[in-house]
Write a structure and sequence with these properties.
Elements lengths: L6 E4 L13 H14 L4 E3 L11 H15 L5 E5 L4 H14 L3 E4 L9 H12 L6 E5 L1 H4 L5 H7 L5 E6 L5 H10 L4 E4 L5 H6 L4 E4 L6 H12 L3 H15 L7 H11 L16 H16 L13
Parallel strand pairs: 1-8, 2-3, 3-4, 4-5, 5-6, 6-7, 7-8
Helix pairs in contact: 1-2, 1-9, 2-3, 3-4, 4-6, 9-10, 11-12
Length: about 300
Amino acid sequence: MQVCWKGVMPAVTTKFTENDALDLEMFEINIRAQVEAGVHGIILGGTLGEASTLTDAEKKTLVEKTVEIVDGKIPVILNIAEQTTKGAIDLAQKAAEYGASGLMMLPPMRYKANDYETVTYFKEVANSTELPIMIYNNPVDYGIEVTLDMFAELAECKNIQAIKESTRDTTNITRLKARFGDRYAVFCGVDTLALETMAIGADGWVAGLVCAFPAETVAIYELCKAGRMDEAIAIYRWFMPLLELDINPQLVQNIKMAEVATGIGTEHVRAPRLPLIGDERKRVQKIIDEGVAARPTLPAYKGIND
């Protein structure tokens, strides 16, 4: 199906059993909760999805299962985080075969490519597929920044259509919109900056805590886009301690703990990740417990921007 680059797109966690196999039963529960809340797309195999630990067979299963669950209601997007151009092209082509509607792409993994190499990498993958692409720009975690000049070069690839902006610099939203207008859809990729960036023109939010709190996340987006900022801010202020769990090296463990608290996930992670222990676990659990206890009553937000 066609990707409409706007709205809330969860970077969903990958569910595992205690025996380290895919937990498709709990995965389906979570995906259905996302769809029911009104998300606008599903992103698989991102940082939260523990992409670096997944086998090709598991990626295939996750895409095919998600396509089956969403049943044409929203697009399914697969993240590409590969070490080689050849591997990225292969996965892009397989994603289309599996039924994915689009791709999200990080720069090359492990090797710190220069600007020319990074642009060439993106172009070669884009030219190998008809699927639309979102570039994931996260120099904080992955060491390579895709600059405005690099996006100017990438604009020749018509299927590079969106940007996940995770530089932590909110002024980049304005810079991108000022330079490129509507050439690229721009998504916030940092939970703690979401409302601010949408207020200044971001088209959507690739979210993390949405995995545990889908309705609250979509409500913030819909209210913001409807100009009902006071209502959006009230929910956002409640949400902030939870959103800060996303900007942490153990974000996967944090968010999976939150999913347990809201009944739509398990805590199982894939080694070398391990569940939190000790004082840090107590700290995170306290934030989650307090957030769940104070969970706001949401206004009717569905359809207010139709």
